[in-house]
Hints:
eight-stranded parallel β-barrel; three-stranded mixed beta sheet; disordered N terminus; GH_1_N_CS
Amino acid sequence: MTSTAPAPLTVRFPPGFVFGAATAAYQIEGAVHADGRGPSIWDTFSHTPGKTHLGHTGDVAAEHFTRYREDVALMADLGLSAYRFSVAWSRVLPEGTGRVEQRGLDFYRRLVDELLGAGVEPWLTMYHWDLPQALQDRGGWTNRDTAHRFAEYADVLHGALGDRVTHWSTLNEPMCSALLGHMSGQHAPGHTDAVEASRATHHLLLAHGLGTRVLRERGATSLGLTLNFTPMTPATDSPADVDAARRCDGQQNRMFLLPAVTGAYPADVVADLAAAGAPLPVEDGDLETIAAPLDWLGVNYYFSSVVRETGEPTGKQSSFIGAGTIADLEPEGPTTTMGWGIDAPAFTSLLTWISSVAPGLPLVITENGSAWPDEVTPEGRVHDPERVQYLHDHLAAVSAAVDAGADVRGYFAWSLLDNYEWARGYDQRFGIVHVDYDTQVRTVKDSGRAYAEVIRAHR
C-alpha cells in the first residue's frame, strides 16, 4: 500500500483545545492474573467458545501493564496533551466490593505519575465494560445493588488518585454494556433478554449518578459521562421507516443522553419499552440522582445508520428492545474493515444537535477513529492513507461544529494503540500506533504522524 495522504489540515481549534488519544483497560493491559486482579465478565466471555473471533482473549493484549512507560513516551513524542484510559474495576476490587487490592491501585498510581511526568494530562474512565465477574455472579447490571457497588468503587478510586487526576468519566458507552451485553448478546455477559437489557440500562445510569455524587463530594471538579451516538436516518419517508428510525434513535441515543442532562427518559422510549414487556425499573428519586450535574459530556462517534421497517422478523438478534423487524441498510460508499460506513458530515450535525439538547454543557470527543488492514513495510513504516483521510475529515467536522456554535473542548483519537477489539479479537486495528502482537513492537503509523502535525500546528 502506498501513502496518498490528503493535503494538510488547515482548520483551527480554539486556544486550550485538548488533543489526546484513548484506550481501555481490557483492550490493552493484559496481565489478567497479575497482582491479585480478579476476573471480569470479559475474561469469562472471551474464554467461552464461539463468543469471539478465533477465540481471541485479552489475556496478553498489548502488554500495556508492563510496557506503560514505553507507551507514555510514545504519547509524549506524538505531542499528546492528554490520555484517556480506563481502570479495570477487578484490578482494584477483585470481588467488585469489599477488599481493596493495593497492588492494582499502585499500577494506576505509577501510570498517572508517568503521564504527569511526561506532561500528559490523565483523563480517567472508571468503567469501560469490564464488570468484575463476582458482581455478575450476583446479577451484574440487572441487580440494582451493582449501582451502589459502583459508588463504593468511585470512592476507592478517588481516594487513591484524586490528588493527581482532575478529569473523571464514570461510564463509557453504557448503551453497549446494556444493549449489546444483554439484548443482542454480542458483548459480555452475552445475554439476549429484553427485561435484563432494560434493567441494565437503568442501573448503569443510576451507577453514573451515584458515582458522580461520590466524586463531587470528594471534591472532584471535572466530571463527565461518555456516551456513544449513532445518528439514525429512515430509509424512506414512509411512516413505518420514520418510526423505525425514531425507535432506534430512542434507544441508541436519547435513552442515555436525556436522563443524564434533563432528568427524564424520553416519553416515547418509555412507552416503547413498556409495550415490549421490558419497562424501565425506575424508583423514586432515581432520575434526580441520574441527572447529577456534569462538567462535560464525552461524545463517541464512528458512523451513522440508515434503517427500515421490514414488517417481519429479520432473523438477526436486534440490539434494540422490541425492534426485531427493523433492519440496517448496507452503507453506501467505502466502509472500514469493521463494515462501518464513513459519514463525517453527520458528525457535525450530531454535535450541533447535542448542543441544542444540552445547552451550556461542554462537549469532549472522547472517541473517534477507524479500522483498516494495516501492515508494516520492509522499511518499518505503516502507511494508512484511509485512516489519515478519516482523521482529517472528522477533525474538520468537529471544527465545523465549533464554528456553528458547539462548545467542543477536545478530541481523543481512538485508539492510541492497536488492541483487542472485544468480540472482533485482534482482527481489527484502530490504532494510530501499530502493535505487532507477536513481538509487541510499536510503530507509529502515518496517521499518528499526521495527528502529531495537527497538534504541533496548534502549539
